[in-house]
Design a protein that fits this description.
Elements (H helix, E strand, L loop, with lengths): L1 H22 L11 H4 L8 E4 L3 E2 L4 E9 L9 E2 L6 E7 L6 E3 L2 E2 L4 E7 L4 E11 L5 E9 L14 E4 L2 E6 L3 E2 L3 E9 L2 E2 L12 E6 L5 E4 L15 E6 L5 E11 L2 E13 L1 H4 L10
Parallel strand pairs: 2-10, 13-20
Antiparallel strand pairs: 1-3, 3-8, 4-9, 5-6, 5-9, 7-8, 9-10, 11-12, 12-14, 14-15, 14-18, 16-17, 16-19, 19-20
The site of copper (II) ion (CU) has 5 residues, from loops.
Length: 286
């Protein structure tokens, strides 16, 4: 409960910033879940209620859930963001098994999809959505995939990732507590890929999961396809702020040749010097 409360505060801050940053086409996480977030109690008060709580491993199965508001009423109206009414991210607690799904909504507020969880264990679900008339929100829950989990150690920090014949190189370092710019460059067989395709309205979608507490960030690039200045590769630029120092697993979804692929990195976010001098208890509620 402590973790989820802390997370809601963080998301409150994120929602407050979202209105501003949306205009320039990116979501920047707040440097801190500070005092502004405390006064902003209207957002993020949503709960992901799994209808499916246990799934089989290694076989396709239905997954259903609802989003309920603070009164426990299912949310049935949503505002599309990035071409979908809701984005569902799933990772096992060891950050393996990443999935980015787009379930379908029925009239009663039940979301349904069909997917395969390859490995047993506890999975964290993150529903990333905008309730109609509301602000960007996030709700999380865990589901169990039957069988004994064979937890994997976090892969070592690396600035390159390979997927399906593509190599993605990460330039820049991720700072905790202040924004940093990172560029992810895509090559294939050693040649820069310059014809990335927009996927859900952007050349890349970056999800960062805190390896310690599974906190979640979803970041979009600093430019839009078709804006006249944003290249379709090889580089995709993001501005992001890690909420706290530590190891994160980054998942970059990008599309090329009509296929979406995910490149994964482990990064270690260091506390930025800019905020180093402030007492760490300052804006935190824990
Ligand atoms: Cu999505």
């Amino acid at each position: 409960m402590n973790e989820s409360r802390k997370f809601l505060l963080f998301i409150g801050g994120l929602a407050a910033l979202f209105a501003v940053t949306l205009v320039i086409g990116r979501v920047v996480a707040p440097a801190d879940e500070g005092d502004e977030a405390m006064t902003d109690t209207g957002h993020g008060d949503y709960t992901l209620e799994p209808i499916t709580t246990e799934l089989p491993a290694g076989t396709q199965a239905p997954l259903q859930f609802r989003i309920v508001d603070a009164q426990g009423t299912p949310v049935t109206e949503y505002t599309e963001q990035h071409e979908k009414l809701l984005h569902l991210i799933a990772v096992r607690h060891d950050t393996t098994g990443y999935q980015h799904l787009h379930p379908t909504l029925d009239e009663g507020g039940t979301w349904s999809t069909t997917t395969t969880f390859a490995e047993s264990g506890q999975y964290r679900l993150y529903a990333d959505f905008v309730p109609a008339g509301g602000e960007s929100a996030l709700a999380t829950a865990d589901v169990t995939v039957a069988g004994e989990a064979d937890d994997k150690p976090l892969p070592p920090v690396s600035d390159t990732a390979t997927v399906d014949g593509y190599t993605v190189t990460l330039d820049g370092t991720v700072a905790a507590g202040s924004p940093s710019t990172v560029t992810m460059s895509v090559t294939r067989d050693g040649a820069p890929v310059t014809d990335l395709q927009p996927y859900l309205g952007a050349y890349g979608h970056l999800v960062a999961i805190d390896a310690d507490n599974l906190d979640y960030l979803h970041v979009h690039p600093t430019g839009h396809p078709g804006d006249g200045v944003t290249p379709s590769g090889p580089g995709i630029e993001f501005e992001l702020t890690a909420p706290e120092a530590g190891d994160y697993r980054l998942f970059l979804d990008f599309q090329h040749g009509d296929t979406v692929r995910t490149a994964e990195f482990t990064v270690s976010a260091q506390q930025s010097e800019a905020t180093d001098t402030q007492p760490s208890e300052g804006g935190h509620g824990h």
